[in-house]
Amino acid sequence: MRLTNEEALKLINTLRSGTSPVYHANDLMTGREPEMEDLRLSMQLLSKGSGSVKIISGNYGVGKSFLVNAFKEIALNEDFIISSFQINNGFRLNKIDDLYYAIMHNLYLKTRPTSKVSFDDIFDIWVDNLQNAPYSDRKRYEVNTVCQELSKFNMNFARAFLSFMRGRIQRNQEMMNVSCSWLTGERNIPYELKQKYDLVGAVDKTNTLDFLKAFIKLITLLDYKGLIVFIDEIDLVINDRVDIRQSAYNNLKHLIDLSTSGGMNNVMFVFSGTQEILTDREKGFLSNTALSQRLNINQENPLENKGNLLVLKPLDSLALLSLTQKIIKLYQQNAILPANIDDHEIFKIVMRNLKVEHMVTRHYVTALIEYLDQNKLA
User: Is the pTM of this model over 0.90?
Assistant: First the structure.
């Protein structure tokens, strides 16, 4: 698909800064066909009810974010809801209830791919259809049917969702806001408001996964194919205190068990980070025997690409040449290059100017665009 001149210019500017593009990454994807096929297959199984966990690892600049962003585009276009965030000071994987909160506050939809959406936004189309239904009883019937399904996972979640839907249909903003806050894991809701709208308890470590299962069931009832959760910088867990780190690894092990055993359906977790998480035997995945066994990590060769693990290697010359051709084509939408220099010649020149033994994709791309900037005619 040809991008507009403005889209091409924005994409080139993103690449010039050494940043992986959030949008249109799939248009530039090259050399990652096996990894993308693996992710696509997992996504197809996900839409049929299965679950999975993937770990994408590799050195800085090798193309992890590029692959992840390309897969996000595909997932959204295939009608999955995605949640995307990273390990940071505000979120650590050792607290499972924090995971639910992070998921619910970082949602993206096909109709709104460029900005986060609220819990409320997910139901726009469904509520519009209910409002315009030719039969007045349809609203009550559909909402009650959904609540009955949710009650199989958690009765309090079903009750809160019923309150949320009543607020939307009755245009009661306070009821809707309070119920929405409760459903998305907010903890500081005044007791009086919770009592007013019959909201019981709160999300905590004892019920978090039940709430997540209920949410996934809810979105599949609305005809979304499932939920894909992207969590970046998993390697930062290495820097945590040993008890916090092992709690995070145990939670990750639990997510693998649930998603692969049928305990949590229609959900896929995609973790990404540097390969230090695989190679550090003292603080990485190998420090937790149960987790490393679940991930099927080869003790002798932890960077082996198999099962849950997608370990990215640097792109080979053919893939880099293909990427070069795509970038030049984009670049020429807004600039004129000398007619006597072709794609292969530019590729050879940029490669000669780099220390190949230390070169990763990010270095090559920034060097390529720097060369194009220096040689453009207009």
Answer: yes
